[in-house]
Design brief:
Shape: globular
Helix content: over 70%
Largest sheet: none
Low-confidence stretches: none
Number of strands: 0
Strand content: under 5%
Structural class: mainly alpha
Order of helices and strands: HHHHH
Distance between the termini: 22 Å
């Protein structure tokens, strides 16, 4: 099923957090001059704005939404949140 990709992406993000490599996500989750959480939150803000613009312009909404969801997953992985907590929250909202 296509929804497995969310869990696969999340597993990669957790691995990049725990075993940093020379990658975009590892760099976002590492501290340097700017705190890692601040860098991730800035990306989420940027991506949220791009979703708004994409929606208003009726273009690239899927791509920009994927970027926003990706960076939100990155934040959850960085904060050590279990992905099942997110799925549990969605299940509660369906009921």
């Amino acid at each position: 099923m296509k929804d497995k990709i969310i869990r696969e992406v999340y597993t990669v993000l957790e691995d990049r957090r725990d075993n940093p490599i020379d990658s975009y996500t590892s760099k976002l989750m590492s501290n340097d001059e700017k705190q890692a959480e601040d860098k991730i939150l800035e990306k989420i803000g940027e991506e949220a704005a791009e979703v708004i613009i994409a929606s208003k312009n009726d273009e690239n909404l899927v791509s920009e939404s994927a970027d926003l969801i990706f960076h939100t997953l990155l934040l959850l992985a960085y904060k050590g949140i279990d992905i099942d907590d997110l799925f549990d929250e969605f299940e509660r909202r369906v009921k």
